[in-house]
Amino acid sequence: MKYNRILLKLSGESLQGAQGYGLSTDVLHSYAAQIRQAVEAGVQVAVVIGGGNIFRGLQGAGRGFDRVKGDQMGMLATIINSLALQSALENDGVRARVLTSIRMEPIGEYYAKARALEYLAAGEVVIIGGGTSNPFFTTDSAAALRAVEIEADVLLKGTRVDGVYTADPEKDPTAEKFDAISFDEVYSRGLKVMDLTAFTLCKENRMPIKVFDMDTEGNLMRLLAGEKIGTLVHL
Ligand code: UDP
């Protein structure tokens, strides 16, 4: 396999699937099956999931919610999604742990790097919920932080778009996809891979990012096997 230890970032929004709200069991099942294959191939898999299918602090603030409370609601939403994925993985026969950045035993164990590494080494999937535990951050930042912290080989950002394009491919049909692009070129072209806090954290810590379409089943394994999938953001 191309990578030994990955941090997989999944968006909350993608968990909605075709129904457009909440949690789709089809999507959860598909993600669980793909993660199972990676674990069976010997890859250590840590996961950070967003909460956008349930609540986003910034959107809440636009509707009169206090921003900090809204962000806390968003972070709790990531825990709900983490539990849903854990459940889907366990149903598929994969051992999975939820570690939370906010103390909330017995829902999950309190996150610590050493604990995460111990479970990863034992072949368990480690789902890190609760974002960074701080408001005004995103789960992309949590994913970047945890990827760096657990010394992942790569941060894999699973999205519904299959990579980084010269423009938004959902709006501009002439947009072209990059197979690889440097951090500096992403900045200079004003492209958006992740929010800038997350992106800069990766750059400063030399953490490569791979953006790929996780909604096409089999893509995760193809990528891990070294096939040309998605876009690699490199130094
Ligand atoms: N959030 C936060 N701090 C963090 C991570 C997340 O405050 O470290 C909140 C924030 O309100 C965010 C919400 O949790 O909008 C859900 O996360 P995100 O929007 O990143 O989810 P995604 O877009 O990946 O579904």
From TrEMBL:
Organism lineage string: Bacteria, Pseudomonadati, Bacteroidota, Bacteroidia, Bacteroidales
Amino-acid positions noted as binding UMP in the UniProt annotation, renumbered to this chain: G51, D71, T132, S133, N134, P135, F136, F137, T138, T139
Single Gene Ontology MF annotation: UMP kinase activity
Function: Catalyzes the reversible phosphorylation of UMP to UDP.
Residue stretches making up the Aspartate/glutamate/uridylate kinase domain: 4-213
Keywords carried by this UniProt record: Allosteric enzyme, ATP-binding, Cytoplasm, Kinase, Nucleotide-binding, Pyrimidine biosynthesis, Transferase
Family: Belongs to the UMP kinase family.
GO biological process terms on file: 'de novo' CTP biosynthetic process; UDP biosynthetic process
Organism: Alistipes communis
Protein name: Uridylate kinase
Enzyme nomenclature, EC number: 2.7.4.22
